[in-house]
Design brief:
The complex is a heterotrimer of chains A (323), B (296) and C (554).
Chain A: H1 5-33, H2 35-53, H3 71-74, H4 81-87, H5 92-110, H6 112-122, H7 127-137, H8 145-156, H9 161-168, H10 183-207, H11 212-220, H12 225-249, H13 257-263, H14 269-272, H15 275-286, H16 289-318
Helix pairs in contact in A: 1-2, 4-16, 5-10, 6-10, 7-10, 8-13, 10-12, 11-12, 12-16, 13-15, 15-16
Chain B: H1 2-7, H2 10-41, H3 45-50, H4 64-71, H5 74-105, H6 112-121, H7 129-138, H8 156-167, H9 171-179, H10 184-195, H11 197-213, H12 216-221, H13 230-243, H14 253-275, H15 277-281, H16 289-295
Helix pairs in contact in B: 2-14, 4-14, 5-8, 5-11, 5-13, 8-11, 13-14
Chain C: H1 2-35, H2 47-57, E1 69-72, H3 77-80, H4 90-99, E2 103-106, H5 113-123, E3 129-131, H6 145-151, H7 159-165, H8 167-175, H9 177-182, E4 193-196, E5 205-210, H10 211-217, H11 225-239, E6 249-250, E7 253-254, E8 270-272, E9 278-280, H12 285-300, H13 312-320, E10 326-330, H14 331-342, E11 351-353, E12 374-382, H15 389-397, H16 402-410, E13 417-420, E14 423-426, H17 428-431, H18 438-445, H19 464-474, H20 478-481, H21 491-517, H22 525-534, H23 537-553
Parallel strand pairs in C: 1-2, 1-3
Antiparallel strand pairs in C: 3-12, 4-12, 5-10, 5-11, 6-7, 8-9, 13-14
Helix pairs in contact in C: 7-15, 12-21, 14-19, 21-23
The chains are: A mainly alpha (323), B mainly alpha (296), C alpha+beta (554).
Chain lengths: 323, 296, 554
C-alpha cells in the first residue's frame, strides 16, 4: 500500500466523496453498479444477524431474575440488582485490580513474544531449521489446559523441579503456588510457553507478504540486518501488529479464567483471583446465569470501549483501523 | 551471493549464533510438554501414578491406554463425524469469510464503517447460551451435524484478519481486472485469494483447529451419540476416570488406575492428526510469495 | 479533530439506532416464539381420564400396552463405552420385555447435565419422566425445590398416582415411616419415585491409614487426636514420609470433610448440634481448635506442605510412593484403587479404615460421612407432559417389585447372576471378565444408581479391608448430627440462602487455607467469625432451622 500512494488516493477518495453527495440513494445506485459485492455481503450479514444479533435479547437476563421455567422473556425484572451486587461485593476492587494487572503484564510480555519469535525466525536462513522450529514451537498450543496446568503444578510443588533447582542455589523449598507473589510470573510465563509458536503463525504469514525487492534495495544501500528489520520488516507487518493489538485491547477484562481456576487456591486469591474466576465461584453455587450475564455485560462494555478508543488512536496515528 | 557476503560480517555472525542457540533452546522447551504427554501415555499406569517431575522416557513402555481408547466403538465414528464437520465447515468458513472480508475491504463500499462496527460488536456482546440454543433449534439444526457447521460459519476475528490482508493488495490489480471486465467474484477467486495464500493458509489452520477442538456445541446441540465428534467422545472416555468416585462403593479396578495415562493417550489421539496439518501449510509461508505471484 | 468527533458521534448514533432496532426486533420475535405454552395450569391431565385408562393397562407385568414413553436420564459412564443408549443394553432390553413398555431414552451429556436440564425446562419440551435432583438444595437441582417444580407446572404431584398405580412403592413407603418422611415435601406431597439406598451402603468414606507401616512400627490404629499426632510423627521420622497426612483439596472441596474436625464436636459446614439445633461449624469457638491443630501439623510437616494444591493425581503419587501414610478418602476410589495399584509391586502395601478421630479415648465420633436412605439425585419425577401418567407410574413401579428389584440390582438371571442358596451371585462373566471390569459389566446388566431399592446382598468390594472399613466408619453419631440433604427451604428462602452461602463460602475458604498455612494470624479468628456473621450466616442457620423443623413435623 505504501508503495502506491497515488493510486490509493485515487481509488479511495473519489468514492468517499461520492458517498456524501449521493447520500441514501447512493446505496441503491451502488447496488446496481456492483451487484456482486452486495450479493457477497448478504449471507455474511444474514449470518451475523441470525446467530449474533437475534439471540442478543438473551442479554436481558442481566437485568432479570432468570428462572429456566419462565424463560428469558418471562422472568421477572430486577433492574440493576446483579450489577450492584457485583460492584458492592467485598472483593470487587481486588478482582478488578488483579484482572487489570494480569492483563497489563500479558500485554507487555505476552503480546510481543510471538512477534519477536517471528522476527528471529525471519532471520534464519536454513529452511529446514526454520520449519522445524516453527512446527515444534506451536505444539504446546494443542495440549489441553488441564494437562498444562497439571504439569505446572507438578513443577512448582515443594518437591518439584523448580524447587530442586532453587534449593541447589540455597533457597528454601516452598510450594510456589501457595505464595501470592509468584503467581503472576508463573501465569504469564506459562502463557508465553503455551502460545508463542501459535501466535507466530499470523506474523509469518504477514512477513511472507513483504516484497523481497525492498530488502534488495536496502542491502544495496548498505543497511545492516538490524536496519533492514527496522525499516523494511517491521513497517511491512505493522498493520497486522496493530490490528492484533487492538483486538487484544478488547480482551483486557477477560483474563483466561479457566487456567486460573485450574491453578489457583484460596491462599493466593490476593493476586490470582480475577473477574472470571470470581464470577465462576460466585455463580457456581446457584447456577446464576443472571449474575454471570451482568458481569459479562460489564466486561464487554469496558472491552468494547477500549477497542473503540485504541482503534481511534491507531487511525489517528498511522491510518490503520478496524473500521 | 549477496547473502553470503552479508552473513560474513562479525556482528551478523554473532547474531546468527545467538539466534540459532536461542531458537534451539526455545524449541526444546516448548516441545517438552508434548513429549511428556507422549511418554506419560505410554507408561505403566501404576508407575506413572507414583511418578512426579520430569519424565525422560516412558515408564515401563506399554500401549494399554491406547488399547482402551481404540477399543471404544465410538472413536471411529467420532473421527468420521469430525472429518465431516471439518470438510463441510471449512468450505463454508472460507467462502463466507472471504465474501465478507473482500466486500468490506473495498473502500468504495457504502456504510463500510458501520458494517465493520456491526461485525466487531458481535465480538463483545452476545445473548448467551439459551437464546442461541433456541435459534439453532428453531432452524431445525439440533441433532444434526449442521448444528456444528452453520452456527460457526464465520468468526469475526478471522474476517478482520482476512480483510486486513485483502486491503494490503494493491488496488491497481483490481482496477486492471475490472477494466478487463471481471466481476467481483472473479476478482476474489482469481486475484485476491491466490495473492493472499499465506493468510488463506492461516485461515484454514485457525478454522480447522477450532472445528477440530470444539466439543461444547456438540454437547449442547447434539443428543444422538452416534453424531458425537471425536473430542466429545474422548471427553466422555476421560470421565471413566471419575467413574470410580461413583458413590456406590464399587472398586475402581483397572479403569481407575489407568485414568491418568488414559488422559494423556486421548490427548495424543486427539492432537496428532492436526499437528500433521501445519507442515503442509508451511509452504505458503515462504517469503515474498505474494509479490512473486503478482509479478509472475 | 472536532470533525472527527462529530463524525464518530453520528456514527455511534446510527449504530445505536441500528442495534436498538435489532434488539427490538429480536424481542418481538422472542416474544412470539416463546409466547405460547408456558403457564403451569394447562394440559395437566386430570386423574379422571386416567381412571378410564386404568382398566386397559392391567396390573400385571408385562403391561398390555402399545404406546411408548420417553425418559430423560443420565447414562452410566461405564455403559457409554458399550452402548449409546440405555434401550440397547441387556438391562434396557430386559426391562422393556418385562414391563412391556417401550421407552425412548434421552441421555444428557454427563458433563453438562445441569445446563441441558435447564435448556430442556426452558424449551418446554418435556419427556414423560425426568431423573434429576428436584430438592433445590444446590445448583445441581431444580431451583426452588419440588413444591416450586409442581407449582411451575413442570412435574406432577404424585400422591394420587402412587396411591393408585404404584402398589410396590406404596407398600415400601407404608412400611418405612422414616423413608416416607424423607421423600415427601413439607406439605406432604410426593414428587418422585425415589432411589432408596440400602442401610449397608450408606457409609463409604473415612480416614484410612497404612496398616503395614503401623505393624512395622508396632503402633495401633490411632483413634484420638494425640495418637494420630504420634503416629504421623512416627511416619515422618521413621518412614521418611514427606507428607504423612494428606487429602485432596480442589475447587474449594477439602476432602477431609468432617474427619478431625468432628473430634472437636463441630463440622466443616452446617450440622445439627446435640440440642437438635442447626449450627454452622466454621464459626464455632471449638473450630478454632481444629484450625490451630492443623496449622501446627502443617508447620511441623505432619500435614501436607503442598496442601491446597493436592489434586487426585498428586494424592495418588503421594500414597503410592510412601510420601503419605494416611488420608481421608473413599472405599473404592481410595482403598480399592490404591491396593489394586500396589498389588504386584508391593504385596505388603495395606490400607485399613481408621475410626473417625476423637479427642478422648473411647468417645464415639461426633460426626462422619453418612448418606441417607433416600438419594434425591437419581430419583425420577413424572412431568406434566406425560400423556399417560398411569403408564409411566406403572413402569416406574416395576423397579420396586421383587422381580424388578432383581433386574435393577443384579441383572438377568443366568446371564449376569445365578441364585446360590437363595443368594444372588454374579456370574464369572461379570466378576472375572477378562476384558472388562466388574463396574463396566454391572453398568450394562443392571442400573447402578436409579429409582429402586438397593439390595443388601449386592457387594462390589474387592478387599476384605473394605468391608472392615465400612464397619469402622459406621460407628459414629453422624446420624444425629448430619443435616439431611432433602430439607426443602421455600423458594424465597432458597434464593436468600444461595446468596448468603456463596459469599460465606468464598470468604470462609480463603480464610480457612490462610489460617492453616499460617498466612493469617490465628488471633484474627474472632474477626473472621465477625465477618462471616456480617455476611449473614445467622440468617442462613435460621433458614435451615425452620426447614428442619418443618421436616421433623412431616
Amino acid at each position: 500500500m505504501a508503495k502506491h500512494p497515488s493510486q490509493v488516493q485515487h481509488t479511495t477518495l473519489l468514492p468517499a466523496a461520492r458517498t456524501k453527495i449521493l447520500g441514501r440513494w447512493g446505496l441503491l445506485k451502488d447496488i446496481r453498479k456492483n451487484p456482486w459485492l452486495y450479493i457477497m455481503l448478504t449471507p455474511v450479514l444474514l449470518y451475523f444477524t441470525v446467530f449474533n444479533y437475534y439471540p442478543m435479547y438473551g442479554a436481558l437476563i442481566a437485568f432479570k431474575d432468570f428462572s429456566p421455567r419462565l424463560g428469558i422473556m418471562g422472568s421477572p425484572w430486577v433492574g440493576w440488582e446483579h450489577f450492584e451486587s457485583f460492584f458492592q461485593g467485598i472483593y470487587f476492587w481486588r478482582v478488578i485490580k488483579n484482572t487489570l494487572l494480569i492483563s497489563f503484564y500479558e500485554l507487555v510480555f505476552g503480546f510481543p513474544a510471538p512477534l519477536i519469535l517471528a522476527l528471529l525466525l525471519n532471520e534464519v536462513r536454513k529452511t529446514v531449521f526454520k520449519r522445524t522450529v516453527q512446527t515444534l514451537t506451536y505444539m504446546p498450543h494443542f495440549i489441553s489446559l488441564v494437562v498444562v496446568c497439571g504439569i505446572i503444578k507438578e513443577f512448582t510443588m515443594s518437591d518439584g523441579i523448580i524447587n530442586d533447582l532453587l534449593s541447589f542455589f540455597g533457597w528454601e523449598r516452598v510450594s510456589l503456588l501457595l505464595e501470592s507473589e509468584y503467581f503472576r510470573t508463573i501465569f504469564i510465563s506459562s502463557g508465553i510457553w503455551q502460545n508463542i509458536g501459535w501466535g507466530t503463525i499470523i506474523y509469518l504469514a504477514a512477513l511472507s507478504g513483504i516484497d523481497q525487492e525492498q530488502y534488495e534495495a536496502a542491502r544495496m544501500d548498505g543497511a545492516s540486518r538490524w536496519k533492514q528489520m527496522h525499516h523494511v520488516t517491521l513497517p511491512g507487518i505493522l498493520p497486522t501488529i496493530i490490528i492484533l493489538f487492538i483486538l487484544e485491547m478488547g480482551r483486557i477484562m477477560n483474563v483466561g479464567g479457566e487456567k486460573i481456576i485450574l491453578l489457583y487456591n484460596p491462599s493466593i486469591y490476593d493476586t490470582a483471583d480475577v473477574i472470571s474466576s470470581y464470577v465462576y465461584r460466585m455463580g457456581l453455587q446457584e447456577f446464576d446465569y443472571s449474575f454471570g450475564s451482568a458481569v459479562g455485560l460489564f466486561n464487554s462494555a469496558i472491552n468494547f470501549t477500549l477497542v473503540i478508543c485504541s482503534n481511534w488512536l491507531s487511525r489517528k496515528m498511522n491510518n490503520t483501523s478496524l473500521w | 551471493m549477496m547473502r553470503r557476503r552479508e552473513g560474513a560480517s562479525i556482528g551478523g555472525k554473532i547474531f546468527d549464533v545467538f539466534n540459532y542457540t536461542l531458537l534451539t533452546v526455545l524449541t526444546i522447551c516448548t516441545l517438552y510438554p508434548l513429549i511428556y504427554v507422549l511418554f506419560a501415555s505410554l507408561s505403566e499406569p501404576t508407575l506413572y501414578m507414583q511418578h512426579s517431575g520430569i519424565l525422560w522416557k516412558p515408564l515401563h513402555f506399554n500401549f494399554n491406554a491406547y488399547r482402551l481408547v481404540f477399543e471404544n466403538p465410538m472413536i471411529i465414528r467420532g473421527y468420521l463425524n469430525t472429518f465431516i464437520v471439518l470438510a463441510g465447515g471449512l468450505v463454508l468458513n472460507i467462502i463466507l469469510t472471504a465474501f465478507g472480508a473482500y466486500a468490506l475491504s473495498r473502500k468504495g463500499l457504502r456504510y463500510r464503517k458501520q458494517l465493520m462496527l456491526f461485525i466487531v460488536f458481535t465480538m463483545f456482546f452476545n445473548g448467551g447460551l439459551i437464546p442461541l440454543y433456541f435459534t439453532v433449534k428453531g432452524l431445525g439444526l439440533t441433532n444434526t451435524l449442521w448444528s456444528l457447521i452453520i452456527p460457526q460459519a464465520i468468526s469475526a476475528f478471522n474476517l478482520i484478519i482476512m480483510r486486513t490482508a485483502f486491503e494490503a493488495v494493491p488496488d491497481s490489480l483490481e482496477e486492471s481486472a475490472k477494466i478487463d471486465g471481471a466481476n467481483e467474484f472473479v476478482i476474489l477467486f482469481r486475484i485476491m485469494i491466490p495473492l493472499c495464500m499465506p493468510v488463506m493458509a492461516v485461515m484454514l489452520l485457525y478454522y480447522g483447529v477450532s472445528h477440530w477442538n470444539s466439543w461444547f456445541n456438540a454437547m449442547i446441540y447434539v443428543q444422538d451419540r452416534s453424531l458425537y465428534p471425536l473430542q466429545l467422545v474422548l471427553r466422555e472416555l476421560l470421565l471413566l476416570n471419575d467413574a470410580s468416585s461413583m458413590a456406590t462403593g464399587a472398586s475402581g479396578g483397572e479403569v481407575a488406575v489407568i485414568g491418568e495415562t488414559l488422559k494423556h493417550a486421548t490427548i495424543i489421539v486427539a492432537t496428532v492428526p492436526i499437528l500433521f496439518v501445519y507442515p503442509f501449510l508451511q509452504k505458503y509461508f515462504v517469503k515474498g510469495a505474494m509479490i512473486g505471484a503478482i509479478k509472475g | 479533530m472536532a470533525q472527527y468527533f462529530l463524525a464518530s458521534k453520528s456514527l455511534l448514533r446510527q449504530l445505536k439506532t441500528g442495534v436498538t432496532g435489532i434488539l427490538l426486533m429480536s424481542l418481538v420475535l422472542a416474544g412470539c416464539s416463546q409466547g405460547g405454552g408456558k403457564g403451569g395450569t394447562e394440559a395437566k391431565p386430570t386423574l379422571q381420564e386416567d381412571k378410564s385408562a386404568a382398566s386397559d393397562l392391567g396390573t400385571t407385568y408385562p403391561l398390555k400396552i402399545s404406546e411408548g414413553i420417553s425418559s430423560w436420564e443420565g447414562l452410566n459412564m461405564n455403559a457409554v463405552t458399550f452402548f449409546p443408549n440405555l434401550a440397547d443394553t441387556p438391562f434396557g432390553k430386559a426391562l422393556a420385555e418385562n414391563t412391556g413398555v417401550h421407552v425412548k431414552y434421552i441421555h444428557p451429556n454427563e458433563q453438562q447435565t445441569k445446563e441441558q436440564f435447564n435448556l430442556m425446562i426452558a424449551s418446554d419440551e418435556l419427556p414423560d419422566t425426568i431423573e434429576y435432583d428436584w430438592t433445590g438444595r444446590s445448583a445441581g437441582s431444580y431451583p426452588g425445590g419440588p413444591e416450586k417444580a409442581i407449582k411451575d407446572g413442570v412435574i406432577l404431584e404424585l400422591n394420587d398416582i402412587i396411591d393408585k398405580y404404584a402398589p410396590n412403592l406404596k407398600k415400601k413407603l407404608e412400611e418405612d415411616k422414616e423413608l416416607n418422611k424423607m421423600v415427601k415435601t413439607d406439605s406432604g406431597k410426593y414428587y418422585v419415585f425415589p432411589m432408596i439406598r440400602n442401610p449397608s451402603g450408606l457409609v463409604f468414606r473415612g480416614p484410612m491409614i497404612r496398616k503395614d507401616w503401623l505393624d512395622e512400627l508396632n503402633l495401633p490404629v490411632p483413634t484420638t487426636i494425640d495418637e494420630w499426632e504420634a503416629t504421623l510423627k512416627a511416619f515422618k521420622e521413621k518412614k521418611g514420609a514427606k507428607a504423612p497426612l494428606s487429602v485432596t483439596y480442589t475447587g474449594g472441596n477439602f476432602e477431609i470433610r468432617d474427619a478431625f474436625i468432628g473430634a472437636y464436636h463441630t463440622s466443616n459446614s452446617f450440622y445439627i448440634g446435640d440440642d437438635g439445633k442447626v449450627k454452622y461449624g466454621p464459626v464455632d469457638p471449638q473450630y478454632k481448635d481444629f484450625l490451630t491443630l492443623f496449622r501446627k501439623w502443617f508447620a511441623e510437616g505432619l500435614f501436607d506442605k503442598d496442601f491446597a494444591l493436592t489434586d487426585s493425581k498428586a494424592l495418588d503419587n503421594k500414597m503410592l510412593t510412601g510420601q503419605t501414610g494416611a488420608t481421608v478418602h473413599q472405599l473404592s476410589g481410595g482403598i480399592g484403587k490404591w491396593m489394586d495399584a500396589m498389588k504386584k509391586q508391593d504385596p505388603k502395601f495395606k490400607l485399613v479404615g481408621a475410626p473417625y478421630p476423637s479427642l478422648n479415648k473411647g468417645e464415639i465420633p461426633f460426626i462422619g460421612q453418612r448418606d441417607f436412605k433416600y438419594n434425591p439425585g437419581a430419583s425420577k419425577a413424572i412431568t406434566t407432559a406425560a400423556k399417560n401418567p398411569e403408564l409411566v407410574a406403572k413402569w416406574l413401579d416395576y423397579a420396586y417389585s421383587d422381580e424388578g428389584a432383581m433386574l435393577f440390582n443384579f441383572g438377568i438371571e443366568g446371564e449376569s447372576y445365578t441364585m446360590e442358596n437363595g443368594t444372588p451371585v454374579y456370574t464369572n462373566q461379570i466378576k472375572n471378565n477378562e476384558k472388562y471390569t466388574l463396574q463396566q459389566m454391572v453398568s450394562i446388566y443392571s442400573k447402578p444408581n436409579g429409582p429402586y431399592e438397593a439390595d443388601s446382598r449386592r457387594n462390589w468390594n474387592t478387599y476384605p479391608e473394605q468391608d472392615e472399613a465400612v464397619k469402622i466408619w459406621s460407628n459414629t453419631e453422624a446420624e444425629k448430627h448430619i443435616l439431611p440433604a432433602f430439607l426443602t427451604p421455600t423458594d424465597e428462602e432458597s434464593k436468600e440462602l444461595g446468596k448468603i452461602m456463596t459469599d460465606v463460602n468464598n470468604y470462609k475458604e480463603e480464610m480457612f487455607v490462610k489460617f492453616i498455612v499460617g498466612k493469617e494470624a490465628i488471633e484474627n479468628y474472632d474477626q473472621y467469625v465477625a465477618q462471616i456473621k456480617k455476611l449473614g450466616i445467622n440468617r442462613a442457620v435460621e433458614i435451615y432451622q425452620s426447614a428442619l423443623d418443618r421436616y421433623n413435623k412431616r
